[in-house]
Amino acid sequence: MEKEKEKEILVDFRIKKVLLEFGTYPTIRKALRGTAKTPQLIKIREEAIKNGGLIKN
Fold first, then answer.
1. Which residues contact residue 49 at a Cβ distance below 8 angstroms, ignoring those fewer than 6 apart?
2. Residue 30 domain-assigned?
3. What distance lies between CA 33 and its chain's CA centroid?
4. pLDDT for residue 3
5. In a domain, 4, yes or no
6. Domain around 39
7. How many alpha carbons lie under 13 Å from residue 50 in its C-beta half-sphere?
8. For 1-57, how does the pLDDT look when each residue is reduced to its tens digit (9 = 90+)?
9. Residue 46 burial by Cβ neighbours in a 10 Å radius (0-12, 13-18, 19+)
10. Which of 8, 13, 42, 50 makes an SS bond possible with 56, Cβ 3.0 to 4.6 Å?
11. What DSSP string describes the chain?
């Protein structure tokens, strides 16, 4: 059975810099790609969308 993967979120580099307060670049990359589900990654995804991130179809 495959892991459930969320849709990828596309963000500008300046938004990634803002997201650094929630974790490191590898953590942010995992969150934006939707490859894992932890409370920290969910918070990063919410902040990315709030700051102008686009959900890739």
1. 9, 55
2. yes
3. 6
4. 62
5. no
6. 9-55
7. 8
8. 456 678 999 999 999 999 999 999 999 999 999 988 899 999 999 999 999 999 987
9. middle
10. 8
11. -PPP-PPPEE--HHHHHHHGGGS-HHHHHHHHHT----HHHHHHHHHHHHTT-EE--
**How many C-beta atoms surround the C-beta of residue 47 within 10 A?**
18
For residue 2, being part of any structural domain is answered with no
Into how many domains does the chain fold? 1
- Is residue 14 assigned to a domain? yes
**DSSP output for 22-35:** GS-HHHHHHHHHT-
> Distance between CA 17 and CA 2 in Å, rounded?
32
CB 55 within 8 A of CB 9: yes
